[in-house]
Amino acid sequence: MIHVFNTMTRTKELFKPLQAGIVNMYVCGPTVYNYIHIGNARSAIAFDTIRRYFEYAGYQVNYVSNFTDVDDKIIKAARTAGISEHELTTKFEQAFIEDTLPLNIKPATVRPLATEHINEIIKFVADLITQGYAYVAKGDVYFRARKFPDYGHLAHQNIDDLEIGASERLDDGELARKEDPVDFAVWKGANPDEAITWDSPWGPGRPGWHIECSVMAIKYLGDTIDIHGGGQDLAFPHHTNEIAQSEAHTGKKFANYWLHNGFVTVGDDNEKMSKSLGNFVTVHDLLNEVEPQALRLMMATTHYRRPLAYTKTAIAEATQVVKRLQTAYTNLDFRLQQDDASPVEDSNLAAQVTAFKLKFMQAMDDDFNVANAMTVINDFTTALNVYAKATNVSSLTGHDALREFAAEVMVLGVNVQPSLDEENTKWIDEKVATRDAAKKAKDYAQADMIRAELKAQGIILEDTAQGTRWKKE
Ligand SMILES: [Zn+2]
After folding, report:
1. Is residue 95 part of a domain?
2. pTM for the whole thing?
3. What range defines the domain where residue 22 resides?
4. 238 is in an annotated binding site
5. 242 annotated as a binding-site residue
6. pLDDT tens digits, residue range 252-310?
7. According to the annotation, is 399 in a ligand binding site?
8. Which protein residues have a CB closer than 5 Å to ligand 1 (ion)?
């Protein structure tokens, strides 16, 4: 029974999906105008860990996360770089994929782009106008926040307190066009010098930021979704506005559970990360310096709602932990391959594994209590180390233990199973091709040498009628 902390009610609630066994979740993705910084990575890792736990617990997770690919920051960055907005966003979408893969962040089930949903956004905005929730003002379209009951509830703020904040963020022109300072743009009329515009019933323009998430979440996951996630800084105004637009449009509750991750601080002084402070760390740069799985583990083992302090000490510690987990796995795996390993079940070890699984789930069921889960994993690691040194081992139960251990550690995004990466695979394929050519030329000495070279790397060759196959030892 999984309990999650719902920002909307500020309580831990029992998670009940709309459809049994399925989790429909939407997480706000990055604006693709630069390499992602560690704040973006934190959010992606927090929700990837949550997603992986639901999957571990047997759910099917439909995970939708967008790229915001039209926005003021993008227009500005493209202009500075002297390239089109599309060139800029394509580059950083690709960079996001490359930077998140080593962190074992699973690709989203759907990764929609705002610019590929313009027609749907225009239709949604037009509906809001028809419903009386939105109005046209000199090429812009604004949402009447005050018309939506309970506006601001998610941020636990009163609309009149929000109003002051809202008016502070506006330029005079926008303020003059609004009926009420608290209203927000769902469509922005184009400035004369802007190249990235679309025709709409209200003239050329582009979507406001918030509207894309409403339209795409509803399109891919339905009118009501199970979980909506994002950074805690998004609760207001972004998520507050998503709720108002979506619920005004559908007349239904938009999301049953709102989950928000905490900030990242950099350095040991606990200063909130900010570009102006000069501690703007991109994942792209960081991956050259740190072991990706250590960064992943460090971020995954800080509770998602708590602030995360990125320090060199924390990374160094996580690097050691990753090594310890992988060594425990490899050592026992090696021990189980010895000839004396018994094929008979070891009921003692089986009972231990069942207990670890239960405790791991108890920890994670409690709003993803990763600290407690890590305590279980540490005990599990010790148990594996002890078993690897035992006089009698069961290869059957031993492998069950390794499978369960790997699955729990993978929830936190660390892969303990030595795997063949793409580069290695390519190297092996090339060796095999060279050996085949040598055999064809009857150069058996070279062919045997290559076989031995691969054997030394744990690769076994099989000569079949269809050609040479290779497998891991
Ligand atoms: Zn969003």
Report:
1. yes
2. 0.87
3. 3-261
4. yes
5. yes
6. 999 999 999 998 887 765 555 554 444 578 999 999 989 999 999 999 999 999 999 88
7. no
8. 28, 213
